[in-house]
Design brief:
Layout: E1 7-10, E2 17-18, H1 20-33, H2 41-47, H3 51-60, H4 68-82, E3 88-89, H5 93-100, E4 104-108, H6 113-122, E5 131-133, H7 146-154, E6 162-166, H8 169-178, E7 181-185, H9 192-197, E8 202-204, H10 211-214
Parallel strand pairs: 1-4, 1-6, 4-5, 6-7, 7-8
Antiparallel strand pairs: 2-3
Length: 216
């Protein structure tokens, strides 16, 4: 496939970086400050992935939506100051990106762009990517294809020669809607059955397998 792919676009959380501990800590900080009980990592894992606003609404729950504005402020203040405390790059990611380095590569997250950029830099991944874009960059969140399509245009790419890599059905659906190839990882935050049901072109259990599509 190496001759047919010019651009690889990666999701961030759950794909390149295990950021769950810092996301959950920020959420639980907000909950604590608001007098609400903290939630376990297993619960937070199911709630993340649709941008900060949706995450805050989810961890507040239906009975406490009236606290949304306060919760969002508390969450963002804490997360922006602690987004590198416990987050880790997944095993094999740096080595695989280095192997793919001749390729044009970018990040498209549903996380806000400024926070996405900070995570990429703090995790030591900045030199690999031509562009880092977030959920507020184009006015659309994945699974909408609009952000991915706009990013491809910004980089002068073509959808048919682009590979979208992520860990959730939203990444697969975004790629399919934009007309790209898709690869999904089952070791991130998405439910493996739901990911398979989204019918990605390639389904992997390990990030290093991505390199086999375009290198070697």
């Amino acid at each position: 496939m190496s001759s047919t792919i010019d651009l690889i676009v990666f999701d961030l959380d759950g794909t390149l970086v295990d950021s769950l501990p810092d996301l959950a800590n920020a959420a639980n900080h907000a909950l604590h400050r608001l007098g609400l009980p903290a939630q376990p990592l297993t619960a937070h894992k199911k709630m993340i992935g649709a941008g900060e606003k949706n995450y805050v609404r989810r961890f507040l729950g239906p009975d406490f939506q009236h606290l949304y504005d306060q919760a969002l402020k508390l969450y963002l203040e804490h997360y922006s100051g602690h987004l590198g405390d416990q987050s880790q790059v997944y095993p094999g990611v740096k080595e695989t990106l280095a192997r793919l380095a001749p390729m044009n590569m970018a990040v498209l997250s549903n996380k806000r762009e400024d926070l996405s950029r900070q995570v990429v830099e703090v995790m030591g991944l900045g030199n690999f990517f031509m562009m880092v874009r977030g959920g507020n960059s184009y006015g659309a969140l994945k699974p909408s294809p609009e952000g991915l399509s706009a990013l491809i245009r910004e980089l002068g790419g073509t959808p048919a020669r682009t590979l979208m890599v992520g860990d959730k059905p939203e990444d697969v659906l975004s790629g399919r809607g934009a007309g790209t190839r898709t690869a999904a990882l089952t070791n991130g935050y998405g439910d493996p059955e739901a990911i398979a049901a989204a019918r990605p072109d390639h389904l992997f259990s390990d990030f290093t397998q991505v390199a086999g599509l375009v290198a070697g």
